[in-house]
Structures are given as C-alpha cells and as structure tokens.
Specification:
By secondary structure, the protein is α+β, with helices and mostly antiparallel strands. Helix content is 23%, strand content 24%.
C-alpha cells in the first residue's frame, strides 16, 4: 500500500535511510562500500576511464533509421526514454555527450506531483526510502541585536490532502539511476549511447520522407573518437540543456533577463548549533545576505543556497573567481550568532539568477501549424531556464518528457493522428511561462533585504510577507496547479459539477479506495501507470448490480460501438488502449464482483484469464472518495484520464455519443 492521504503523505512505520555519516559517497546507499574521500568541485559525471565499465552503449553504432532519437540524458530525456521504452515496436535511442551516467546531480527537489509520476513509473517507494522528506519550513529574520537572527515563523510545507505523497529531496543522479533501471527492464530494454555529441540536423519538410530528420552525431570518447554517424529519424527531441544544440539548429533561442545577482550553492557535511538545520529554512539576515537551507537525504548532508554579490550589467560570475571557502565564510556570516563548521563539501557551484524562455518548443513556425506537424521538439532546460531555489527545474523538465512521451507513442503506434503533437508546445509553454513568472517573483523576494522592525519605508521585504507568499504558492511549487487548456485531448468543462474534485485539465487527484475483489486498501491514482493507456473511471450512481443501471448501460455501450469497442485493435486485450475502471458507492462487503458488468471483469492474455482488479469502493477508514472529490451521488459520472494522468473530460454516465465524439477527435 502506498502513502495515505494526509499531512505530507506520512505512512506509519515507513522510515527513511541514514547514510553519508563518514563522508559523501555517490550511488546506491544500499550498496556497501568504503566512503569516498570527497572532492570539493563542480564535477558531475564519471571519469572517462570508468565510463566503459558502466551500463550503456559506448562502442555500438546507432541504427541507420530510428523512430525517436533523444538528445540528452537529463531529467527530461530520461523520463521520455522511460516512457517510450514501454513500446518495443518503437525504435528509440537516447544519446549523451557525457562518458557515462550522472554521478552527482545539481537538482534535488522532488515535488508531490513528480512523486505521483514516479509511482506511475514504479519507483516511488525507492525515492521515499532514500530521500529527505520536507515536512515543515521555517523562516528566519534579523534579531533585535547586531549579527543575530531569530525564527519568525514555521509552517507546514505542503497543505493537508494536496497529495498522498510528500515533497522530498534526493540527488538528481539517483533519480537518473531509477529511470535507467526502468529503461533497461522495460520491453524495449533501452540503454543510453554515451560519448555521442550532437553536431546538427536537417529537416525534410516536403512530406515525402517517412524519416524526414537527418541527424549528425560525433563520437567523443573511446576507440571511435571523432567518428561521425548520420541517422535518419522520424522524431527528434532535444533534451540537451540550456546550451542546446538542437534548439540552435532550429533557429530558436532563449530570451529573457538576468537579475545580475550572484548566488552560491554547496552540499556539505557540517557541525552547527543552528536549531533548524534539519528543516527547510529561509534565512534573511540584517546585513550579511540571505541563505536557504535544504536538508539532504541521508540524515547528515545539507544544501545551502548563499546570496553573494550584485553583478554589473554586463558582468559574469566567472570573473569574480569565487571559491568554496568564500561560500563557507558567507554562510557562516549569515547564520550568526550560530556556528558553522564544514567538515566536507560534496559539491558546490556558483550561478547567476536569470529567467529565460523559448517562444516555441517544436520546429513548426506558428504560421505553418495548419500545414504540417512537428518533427523536432525541445524539452527541459533547452526551452526554459530559471534559478534553482524554487526547486522547480527538474520537476518541470520531467513533466515535459511525460507530456510528450505518450503522444509520440500514440502517433507512432497508429492510435492517434500526428496533429496531437501540436499540443506539446502549447501545453508545456504555458506551464514554463508560469514558472518563469513565479521564479522571478520568488527570487526577487528572497534576495531582497529584510525590513527591520518598525521600518515602514519602501525598500526591502517584510519577512512575514515572504512567508505568506510561500504558503500562497504552495500548490504551484507542489506541481499540482498545472491546468491544460481545452484542445483535441482536453475537453471543455461543461459537466464539471458532476466531479468537482477532478478538475478538467488538471492532474487526477488520487483518493483512498478499497478494491472490491480482495478488499485491499489503496490509492485510486496508483492504477495510472506510465503505459500509454487512457483511463475511464465510471463513478456509479444507483445500484451497480442492477442490469438496468447506468453503470451496466455505460459498460455495454463502451464495449459495443463506443470507444473501447471501436479503438481496441482486433485480438488485443480489451483494456490495451482504454482501461475502464469503476468506483461504487456501496461498502465492499455488500457487493459481489460477479454481478458487475463483463467489461469490468475482462478476459485477457493467452489463457483468457479474468482481471479482477477493475472495481473499487470507498474506504470508510480513510474517507469516502465521493465526498473527498465532490462526486455527484445521484447521477454518477465518467472521468476520462489521459496517459499522463491529467483529466481530459468529465461526462454524465449516459453521454455515450459525447464520449465517443471526444475519442474520435484524438484517436485514429
């Protein structure tokens, strides 16, 4: 059973791991080994001499033709690759110029919504076990005397009921490890091709080629160093970072502004008497600057974001030649009167605050959108960059990949028309634009000097106002505020009153249920796996066992001339494209599974075995889902969920023609 809904998704009895006690050591903390000596530096990839000993394809050549080529093994690229690896009929490859897997990542914040996605990929439990759970956040402000700070507030990090999962902190490299495991264990058995650098592409826009994108890649390591490969591809996705070569090849650029403010960041093992060292803490000192403390996984490691100097209009941080000793000294000044003794620096870096956004996330100019469909996409930092303090970069990048992956799979599998690919840029550009605006405001508030008590002047920020802003933006930072606009894959919300808690365009908000067949309590949202399938949840109104009920009538229509009957390929399992589930109002002990419609007891596989896991009931011990999600008990409803877990439609149970019309518009 996964985490239950409530404060921070706490599950009784679940304990996170402690590690890094004797020094920082990257990799799987469950594997025994000597602690690393530790090196204070920004290196984040494996040494070249070790790369050949790692999983991945260093020496093998790419096929001459591919369906999808992903450039870059960052969060966006690996999410996309993990999704496509579920489809062995799609020829996919992912390349990266680094010699091997990431060893020590910069990003670490994992939002509640991202944890829900990790559950879909099957590794949320691994993240929960290793990570630091952000339960509360404290806010510190200048004290009454010189060189003092005092706690001004302490709040719950995530509001009750927002998600069954907590906000957690874990090294990006471990997230990469989990995605790589998914890829190599998936039907396609996908492994990255490392030491392969993007050198350019051309696109045939005539429509005459079935592999219209030609990509050039150069080997940058090993015995084939300098060799250039040419690959013809149906679709290319550039997940190659802020200096994206794919974006440059499309003639696109990141536009925006810099705040001309330098910050440092370091992961340290330290001894301190600061009382909130194991809480997320935002600290505004009177004159020494600001500091954000993020406790890291393992129980000992901590990350510090440290305000440095204001930069000149055309100045770059590299010209300041900042050292790690300077970061440590700056952090110590901000923390006064508390002491800080750094024992080891696992990683550090300096950066400039800036927010930049690309105008489109694919290769099709807006004027040509009606004439052709996209063939090249960009995702993650290749199309949006911002400061790291809000903890959104990795999360939004992974959601880029999740949004695009199922669409490519549906088009290449012949289940959807290529026109749905236009929705990727439209949907994700809107999310990125919101992120940029949030980050600009958050960075400005956090970096502003605090107002002193009794100072009503115009300058500075009231620490209490910063705390209120943090609480107000909680749903955004949790990743649960995203709402996609109406499109061919997301309907208008004319029937939203039937399911007020399943908002059309937003992610499916899980709730506790009990499975009818085996009385197992679980989270309904956890049936939403990253397998490319649509889901229909039938929330029943009247007696579900009555053959004349709306539930039976709806199931008969779905399996007959409705979406399930129409779009399921001959010979395939009945739920292979559209997975139908039912949620009933009655207690599970009062119902018999055998009285449910045949569509909810489908026969599957080579032996025609019965799938018993399609019907659910409320869990009175954890709250009635009909009450939690504002479901109409009298009429019931159908909730349509996209393969990326976003609600696509809400309809009455008897709106058979409208439901078929919706799917006819987004499926082939």
């Amino acid at each position: 059973m996964g985490p239950v809904e409530g404060r921070g998704g706490e599950t009784p009895g679940r304990l996170t791991m402690q590690y890094h006690l004797d020094g920082y050591r990257p990799g799987d903390p469950a594997q025994a080994g000597p602690p690393a000596a530790g090196a204070a530096g920004p290196a984040d990839a494996l040494p070249a001499e070790l790369a050949g000993k790692l999983p991945g394809k260093l020496a093998g050549k790419l096929p001459g033709k591919l369906d999808v080529l992903i450039i870059g093994c960052g969060p966006a690229g690996l999410t996309l690759a993990a999704q496509l690896a579920a489809f062995p009929g799609i020829a996919t490859a992912i390349v990266d110029q680094k010699p091997g897997p990431l060893r020590l990542g910069q990003a670490d914040g994992i939002a509640c919504r991202t944890m829900e996605m990790f559950e879909a990929f099957g590794f949320s439990d691994r993240v929960l076990r290793e990570s630091y759970w952000v339960n509360e956040t404290s806010f510190w402000k200048p004290g009454p005397g010189p060189d003092t700070i005092i706690r001004g507030g302490r709040v719950q990090d995530t509001e009750d009921g927002l998600s069954e999962f907590p906000h957690v902190i874990l090294n990006q490299a471990r997230v990469h490890d989990f995605f790589l495991d998914v890829m190599r264990n998936a039907p396609a058995r996908l492994e990255p091709h490392y030491a392969s650098s993007f050198r350019g592409l051309t696109i045939d826009t005539t429509g005459r080629s079935d592999h219209p994108v030609t990509v050039r890649l150069e080997r940058v390591d090993g015995p084939r160093r300098g060799e250039v490969e040419t690959v013809r591809v149906r679709y290319v996705v550039g997940c190659d970072g802020a200096r994206s070569g794919v974006r440059t090849a499309l003639g696109r650029s990141l536009t925006g502004e810099s705040a001309n403010q330098a910050w440092g960041v370091m992961d340290v093992l330290a001894i301190t008497d600061f009382p909130d060292i194991r809480l997320k803490a935002a600290i505004h000192s009177a004159d020494a600057g600001s500091l954000l403390i993020i406790p890291r996984e393992g129980g000992y490691l901590v990350r510090m974001y440290i305000e440095l100097d204001k930069l000149g209009a055309d100045e770059r941080i590299a010209s300041r030649q900042v050292t790690v000793d300077r970061l440590i000294a700056a952090a110590a000044r901000i923390l006064r009167p508390y002491a800080l003794e750094v024992k080891e620096v696992a990683w550090w870096s300096v950066y400039e605050i800036g927010q930049r956004l690309c105008d489109r996330f694919d290769d099709v100019p807006a004027a040509d959108a009606a004439l052709r469909t996209p063939r090249v996409f960009i995702a993650g930092d290749a199309c949006h960059t911002h400061s790291p303090k809000a903890g959104q970069g990795m999360n939004v990048s992974m959601q880029d990949g999740f949004n695009l992956g199922w669409k490519l799979a549906a088009v290449l599998g012949g289940r959807s028309p290529p026109q749905i690919l236009h929705t990727y840029s439209a949907e994700r550009h809107g999310v990125a634009a919101e992120l940029i605006e949030f980050d600009r405001a958050f960075a400005a508030m956090f970096g502003a000097a605090p107002k002193r008590p009794g100072d009503d002047g115009a300058g500075g920020i009231d620490p209490a106002a910063f705390q209120r802003y943090f609480v107000k933006q909680g749903r955004f930072t949790a990743g649960t505020a995203t709402r996609y606009a109406p499109s061919p894959i997301t309907a208008a919300s004319a029937h939203q009153h039937l399911a007020r808690g399943f908002v059309v365009g937003m992610r499916f908000h899980s709730a506790p249920v009990i499975r009818l067949a085996d009385a197992r309590p679980l989270e309904l949202g956890h049936v939403l796996k990253a397998d490319g399938r649509w889901r229909l949840f039938l929330f029943a109104g009247a007696d579900p066992a009555d053959p004349a009920s709306a539930l039976h009538t709806a199931c008969a229509a779905l399996a007959g001339s409705g979406p399930v009957g129409r779009f399921t390929p001959p010979g395939a399992d009945l739920d292979s494209v559209i997975d139908v589930r039912a949620v009933l109002q009655q207690p599970h002990r009062t119902l018999a599974l055998g009285a449910m419609p045949a569509l909810l007891r489908p026969r599957k596989g080579r032996f025609g075995l019965i799938d018993y896991e399609k019907v659910f009931c409320p869990d009175p011990g954890r709250g009635d889902i009909f009450e939690h999600r504002g479901l109409n008990r009298d009429r019931g409803c159908v909730v349509v969920v996209r393969p990326d877990q976003h609600v696509a439609h809400v309809l009455p149970l008897d709106a058979h023609a409208d439901l078929l019309g919706f799917f006819a518009g987004c499926m082939a």
